[in-house]
Amino acid sequence: KPVIFSGMQPSSDSLHLGNYIGALSQWTRMQEEYDAFFCVVNLHAITVPQDPAELAERTRATAAQYIAAGIDPAKSTLFVQSHVPAHAELAWVLNTLTGFGEASRMTQFKDKSQRYGADTTSVGLFTYPILMAADILLYQADVVPVGEDQRQHVELTRDLANRFNSRFGETFRVPEAQIQRETAKIYDLQEPTAKMSKSAATEAGLIKVLDPANVTRKKIMRAVTDADGEIRFDREAKPGVSNLLTIFSVLTGRELSSIEQEFAGRGYGDLKKALAEVVEETFAPVRARTEELLADRAELDRLLLAAGDRANEIAARTLDRVYDRIGLLRR
Ligand code: TYM
């Protein structure tokens, strides 16, 4: 079976609609046909300041949301990054193969470091994409399902794999990003030209999987639209309405045109009300199942450790080969 690898940072109290649509809902579909690895990337999360107790909680909560949304731990290897030391070890090796200029061109680093300022920007944030490359390459992944914002990082991963292979001999499979066109980027409800993100200035445009229904409904009812009053998909002229239509379409599996037809001649309020129901239908069961999973911590931890053992076995195999290739003595 071909291999997929993907991950999310446990850096918020809840995943958001962009994570769900751009990544998680694809993963659950793909786990049937692939040997799938889904990682909670807690080493990535600490590239910006985290509260320790919260980080531990959020790591479990992120894993619980994966399962609640349909990742089956019996089919997929769902594990925590810090359970597998090879990630940090391979990242070090790849650091030595990455050009300083090459890493400086990563746009997400430029954005984030601008937001945090030079003094609070860590070197870890700078090398973040290289750790991500290590994640992917350790499992010899063929496909990496992600949202649009990760495209450049997967490109870097490919470059590093090719570089290593040509310098030291065939070692890594060169992965492909899989970025679904319609769902690659879900936008902030208040600022529909910016991607929905946990680091947005306000949470008013951020739909969280674990928020109660009334909070989400309010945010959807207040979503920014436009003055022309027509319910029609047009990303350029009508970014707000188009974003709502995309979300509606993805969550119901319906064509955009059928939704446009249903709402022809009706107001934005009707569309928003219907969308709030669709979102609630999707998230209510995820929320309930997440709560159940978090109520039995011991069982969740046991699941994660077992998956970590499997991940360790595979990752260690790749790392051994890497060490041999470059002449690092092993223990
Ligand atoms: P993270 O935690 O920021 O986001 C997790 C996933 O959600 C996608 N995503 C979105 N998709 C559509 N619309 C949005 N508004 C939106 N916001 C986020 C992201 O593209 C991502 O797929 N660096 C990664 C985590 C990572 C990783 C990896 C991913 C670490 N190692 C190896 C794949 C493979 C990140 O920060 O994702």
TrEMBL record:
Gene3D superfamilies for the chain: HUPs, Tyrosyl-Transfer RNA Synthetase
GO cellular component: cytosol
Motif 'KMSKS' region in this chain: 195-199
Pfam assignment, any one: tRNA-synt_1b
Residues annotated as binding L-tryptophan: 135
Main location: cytoplasm
Molecular function, one GO term: tryptophan-tRNA ligase activity
UniProt keyword Oxidoreductase present: no
EC nos: 6.1.1.2
Function: Catalyzes the attachment of tryptophan to tRNA(Trp).
The protein's name in its UniProt record: Tryptophan--tRNA ligase
Organism: Leucobacter massiliensis
